Amino acid sequence: MKSPSDDEKDFRARILEDIRPWGKFRVYPHENAGGLKIITVNPGASLSLQYHRKRAEFWIALDEGLEITVGERTWRPRRNEEIYIPREAAHRLRCTGPEPARVMEIWLGDSAEDDIVRLADDYGR
After folding, report:
1. How many domains does the chain have?
2. Among residues 7, 53, 61, 123, which is most buried (max CB within 10 A)?
3. Where in the sequence is the domain holding 53, given as residue range(s)?
């Protein structure tokens, strides 16, 4: 079985970037993606501190004004920063800016919305 760091290295190695006269595009591996979504977080709101048993996640920060926690690390990502979240790693997304902020999330592995183990939640779920 691969270690989480090997899984991340393998995923990142398969991201392709193509430079064009008008700019560039990036193609993310999606063969085993269990889901793809854009999450919008309102100012002052946050997702639960959670982890997943069946999937890792790959996030791309689309906007400024986010705070991300993965494991023991908490930081404010740059726009377009790419974040790998290993399976079973505690993580949280918070909007600290004055406007709603978004991340694109790719599920890596077979999973569903019910694969959420909440460790802390502002909404009592």
Report:
1. 1
2. 61
3. 32-120
